[in-house]
Specification:
single chain, alpha/beta, 5-stranded parallel sheet, 21 strands
Amino acid sequence: MSKQFDVIVIGGGPGGYIAAIRAAQLGFNVACIDEWKNGKGGPAPGGTCTNVGCIPSKALLQSSEHFEHANKHFAEHGITATGVKMDVAKMIARKDTVVKQNNDGILYLFKKNKVSFFHGRGSFVKAAEGGYEIKVAGAAEESIVGKQIIIATGSNARALPGTPFDEELVLSNDGALRVGAVPKKLGLIGSGVIGLEMGSVWRRLGAEVTILEGLPTFLGAVDEQIAKEAKKAFDKQGLKIELGVKVGEIKTGKKGVSIAYTNAKGEAQSLDVDKLIVSIGRVPNTIGLNVEAVGLALDERGAIVVDGDCKTNLPGVWAVGDVVRGPMLAHKAEEEGVAVAERIAGQHGHVNFNTVPWVIYTSPEIAWVGRTEQQLKADGVKYKAGTFPFLANGRARALGDTTGMVKMLADAETDEILGVHIVGPQASELISEAVVAMEFKASSEDIARICHAHPSLSEATKEAALAVDKRTLNF
């Protein structure tokens, strides 16, 4: 007889493992199925985020940032460092250790919260008495039955038509994290989060990096003023970013990769590189889920169709994270996972898409929440804007990093904060204050009147709030 569970979660990434743990905390008998494997074939829960996304990329960004500081910035602090070299193999090994620590941490949390973990691929078999029968194809095949099913199977990197990933010359985010030596020339197609972060890592280590972007504007989803400030910084660092290009034929060979393209002027160009990272977005992952067996509805993008509560068209079946609509962000998936677990328990789980923060972990970091100035203009919203540069912030001067600014947008009549946009040091941490403020519908005056520690980077947020009403304290 198949094992019976109250809740079965298919997928152990940020949405899945968080949903499983929360459901267990609420008193349910829970199983989580995940097929990720480590180098030894053992379980590696955590999904794309932990294994080939958020966590390993941040590890490499940190290592490369240390290297660049030692080579270029220590001297201004009176620190002499000569003969600084990067051992790429050791850097990659450290990244792998960080990933494994996170994998093991999730397995520990499963055990602590009494979540039954199944290592293998989960797929629907049929609707069964008391719920749905789910097949687990792992070292051995078995079937389990769940009253409620939460699908959290994530997403896969989108390949260029006719140019599949070989993870040796043409790389997805996976291959980009396993490059064994610094390429002399690195090409990237797409200037999104992955492209900019991986480009920054290898540029710091000595690669000549060229980014080809099809859109005519840089970081089109980012506030235009912030994006322009960021591009100035990247240009100064030596990242070559070409906008408005149309990529043509891509050839691979013993010498690397050759990319034919036309530039924004329509002129034929070619780029020869040792490695090519393709970063043109991600697609929902329903491969092998066998949705046909139960009639689970997908949309034209291949995403699972859900309502505002993450319910699918099937009773007792839910879906969260990258496999459904909305931003493909780990923390969005986590919030949906918690909310669904609570809804199953009869509670009122809450996810507010308007206050989901976005971050690009380059240097300078870019972070934002809420609407951009161009969105407010397009929607005909009357607003006030305030900005404050880190150049005038004492803590930023002491850090030696005065790049960028904080920008705040508020309703012209009510003063409610509509968006906060940051480019500069530690933007990923600073944005949290704005998220909290917006969740509680704070006004720019509320931020301006809150006492911020001095000296701190957060004073730039206070100053931007003051600037909304054309005031300043000039810290």
